[in-house]
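[worker-b] picked up task from shared queue
[worker-b] task type: protein-ligand structure
[worker-b] ligand name resolved to glutamine; SMILES cross-checked against name lookup, match
[worker-b] sequence length check passed
[worker-b] input payload:
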Amino acid sequence: MTGAILVLEDGRTFRGDAYGATGTTVGEAVFATGMTGYQETLTDPSYAGQIVAMTAPHIGNTGVNDEDDESRRMWVAGFVVRDPARRPANWRATGTLDEELRAHGVVGVSGIDTRALTRHLRDRGAMRAGISSELDADALLVRVTAAERMTGADLAPTVSTQQPYVVPAVGEKRFTIAALDLGIKTATPRHLAALGVETHVLPSTATAEELLAAGPDGVFLSNGPGDPAAADYAVAAVQGVLDARRPLFGICFGNQILGRALGLGTYKLRFGHRGLNQPVLDRVSGTVRVTSHNHGFAVDAPLDRPTDTPYGQVEVSHVGLNDDVVEGLRCLEAPAFSVQFHPESAAGPHDAAPLFQRFVDLMESARRGDAHAGGPAPQVQDSTGEKI
Ligand SMILES: NC(=O)CC[C@H](N)C(=O)O
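[worker-b] inference finished, payload out:
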């Protein structure tokens, strides 16, 4: 077995075995706490530039399949696992994770103490790191300290589609939307399609004019990698959409971009939220949902009062219950809202999926010409009859 090392920016070194592709890679070391969903994680464009360590010790058990990819390729800069499955056991599996990582050139390391690594990152914060099966620790550390930092990194254009494309509605088409692809996952248009929404996906650098050109019923802002403070082009596009008063819904990076478009700041969290069971309070409905997260930055906004913006007041609609981080925004005088977590899940629980229905409700009320603001009163009911 070929050896490999993981070296953190502060010099801490872990020794293990090469996993996936051999070679050398650098990126931001982060940990993800989901016990399932490694295929979705690896193919989520939001992880571009990051070396992802899985805290669940046994990874690869269900292999890989042809259906669970969230984009056209794997984007992680590197992959760290404790104990890879020796062989997959799942009826949907078409290959092993190790082979798939190699096919995508993802350099990984296995057999290291991922609990110690996670505690280190939790205490010291996410930091640059490298994995190598060919360099010694000193040489790798030189590469790590020369690597680009996540703060200030503009990565959405590197993962976005270059060409617009359309995802048709399933059944009768009720609405057409333009989606700004900052790193969109396939699960998102799929959720919208099931609600009768046709999604026109546009490149990350699309302007407001381009987003609005076809007269869409609404505009969607996707998740995506990098620092929202570096994506001024997307902020300008969103301001144009707000000026046009077109219904707008954003997820994760989209939440951060909406926040910036409203004049709010963003900041880097110490180690971020990456997992499938993060409790979030929806202050509009008063319910707590267990949600899927993947973010290292967050919006800076007061929790206790609405903020005045050039587009009217905005309030914090969702709050993370682990740490009081802003997890959603709702414009009170404009048809715009967003969440920091992932209603499309993939992977993760489906608690938040009805937020897509809220977007549809918002477009419906805009079409009727009703007075509308970002968070239509929650009228959707889940299977227990509870309002969400
Ligand atoms: N999933 C996302 O959209 C992540 C947004 C942003 N890159 C962050 O790390 O916070």
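[worker-b] attaching auto-annotations
[worker-b] The chain has two domains: 3-145, 156-368.
[worker-b] releasing lock
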